Task: inverse folding
């Protein structure tokens, strides 16, 4: 926590500044009488006259007193207002630092995300998106303590009832590439080829994204897509990854 300005230090510093300034001005007036400034001091310092030792001493004391008068008013105001406002950015900065260290367990993205969280084994995990949160919830053991899990690249080709026009193809590509884990989407006539990382996105998520986007695709095609992917074995593949041999371990092929 930042400390405020010391009242005693500011009082002495300001008072000495005014006292020294007063002394220099008196010396200047003695050296250059034609440019005398003592008349200004006479208006500020009651009882000061030009010039006697008694009058000079009184003016010096009053100048020193003005410094304390200024410090007694200015320092508390500064400490109360300015420092209070300076503390807010510090808190925001600390919060940002805490948020930046969040790493999404699914895609390893680092960022300021607190909206998507799951409590797992008494620990709060933060996710960059609802998609990653749902992916983790389905198979949490795949993403805990496995920084070297790599990728599980899959490729699917979707066959449309008829070739997509340029605008619809552009919408399909834009819809899919917003998903985490989508590596590549190409449209060639009636074929839509999708390359993706199974550890980040599944066919179920891809299907939901296409359906929710309300693209100009026929209802019958979406129904065929759903039936085709229901028969897919992705769920089994993800389960098998849980018992996948560690790198360097090889199973011995049975002899024929």
Result:
């Amino acid at each position: 926590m930042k400390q405020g300005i010391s009242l005693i230090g500011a009082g002495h510093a300001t008072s000495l500044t005014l006292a020294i300034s007063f002394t220099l001005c008196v010396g200047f007036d003695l050296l250059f009488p034609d440019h005398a400034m003592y008349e200004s001091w006479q208006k500020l310092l009651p009882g000061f006259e030009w010039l006697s030792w008694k009058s000079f001493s009184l003016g010096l004391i009053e100048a020193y007193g003005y410094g304390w008068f200024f410090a007694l008013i200015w320092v508390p105001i500064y400490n109360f207002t300015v420092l209070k406002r300076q503390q807010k950015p510090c808190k925001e900065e600390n919060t940002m630092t805490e948020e930046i260290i969040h790493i999404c367990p699914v895609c390893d993205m680092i960022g300021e995300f607190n909206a998507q969280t799951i409590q797992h084994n008494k620990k709060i995990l933060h996710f960059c998106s609802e998609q990653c949160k749902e992916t983790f919830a389905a198979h949490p053991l795949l993403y805990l303590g496995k920084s070297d899990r790599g990728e599980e690249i899959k490729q699917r080709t979707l066959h449309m009832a008829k070739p997509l026009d340029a605008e619809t193809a552009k919408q399909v590509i834009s819809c899919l590439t917003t998903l985490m884990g989508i590596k590549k989407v190409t449209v060639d006539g009636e074929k839509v080829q999708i390359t993706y990382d199974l550890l980040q996105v599944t066919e179920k998520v891809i299907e939901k994204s296409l359906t929710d986007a309300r693209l100009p695709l026929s209802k019958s095609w979406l129904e065929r897509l759903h039936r085709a992917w229901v028969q897919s074995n992705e769920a089994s593949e993800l389960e098998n990854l849980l018992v996948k041999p560690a790198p360097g371990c090889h199973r011995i092929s049975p002899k024929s």
Q: What stands out?
A: The first strand starts at residue 116 and ends at 120. The chain has three domains: 7-98, 101-149, 150-241. Helices lie at 7-31, 38-44, 53-100, 130-138, 166-177, 203-212, 219-230, 234-241. The beta strands are 116-120, 123-127, 153-159, 182-188, 191-197.
